[in-house]
Amino acid sequence: MAIDNFTIHASSIMTVVSLATFLGILWWTFSARRNDDFAEAERIPFADEFLDAPDQTSRTEDRHV
Predict the structure, then answer these.
(1) Mean pLDDT score across all residues of the chain
(2) Are 51 and 45 in contact (CB under 8 A)?
(3) Residue 13 class from Cβ within 10 Å (0-12 exposed, 13-18 middle, 19+ buried)?
(4) In sequence order, which ranges of the chain are alpha helices (DSSP H)?
(5) How far, in Å, CA of 39 to CA of 37, rounded?
(6) Is 28 helix (H, G, I), strand (E, B) or coil?
(7) What is the 8-class DSSP label of residue 54?
(8) Would you state the pLDDT for residue 4?
(9) Which tops the pLDDT comparison, 53 or 30?
(10) Taking a C-beta distance cutoff of 8 angstroms, is the pair 28, 34 a contact?
(11) pLDDT at position 22, please?
């Protein structure tokens, strides 16, 4: 009996803790202070796109020489 009550209460507490964690993550994600950080982070994949790409004309000319 005591174990059953403990399990029911522990399950309820974990549900409340999980919901609070989820809501905290949502609040942190959509807060206005984070917009600049996320705007910078979304540009990261494209930051070195043109710097690392080799010159296509020189590579094809080297193969034909």
Answers:
(1) 79
(2) no
(3) exposed
(4) 2-30, 35-42, 44-47, 49-52, 56-64
(5) 5
(6) helix
(7) P
(8) 79
(9) 30
(10) yes
(11) 98
